[in-house]
Amino acid sequence: MSNIYSNIPNTLPQEIFTDLLKTEHLRVERIVSDGHSSPESGWYDQNENEWVIVLQGQGVLEFEDGRIITLNVGDHHNIKAGEKHKVLSTSANEKTIWLALFYSK
């Protein structure tokens, strides 16, 4: 059995993206951030829907339409395919662990 909180290095120069499950219509990914954010220019613009939940830490998402959403432990949000977004910030004092489910339209 695997544990979502295991195999996390002490230092993270870059975010870690790990596929936990992958099928034709669904992908489950663990994302580990440590004060990371998206680059200033550009947006994520995905072909898949993404449902995301924060399991530890905090993440702040910004959307192209100006919305800003703060996700604390247990908070989740569904991002529709084609909805441009970026990560403004993640916790600076602890690692942020996200669980993301990507699914077809």
TrEMBL record:
<dbReference type="Pfam" id="PF07883">
    <property type="entry name" value="Cupin_2"/>
</dbReference>
<protein>
    <submittedName>
        <fullName>Cupin domain-containing protein</fullName>
    </submittedName>
</protein>
<feature type="domain" description="Cupin type-2">
    <location>
        <begin position="45"/>
        <end position="100"/>
    </location>
</feature>
<dbReference type="InterPro" id="IPR014710">
    <property type="entry name" value="RmlC-like_jellyroll"/>
</dbReference>
<dbReference type="InterPro" id="IPR011051">
    <property type="entry name" value="RmlC_Cupin_sf"/>
</dbReference>
<dbReference type="InterPro" id="IPR013096">
    <property type="entry name" value="Cupin_2"/>
</dbReference>
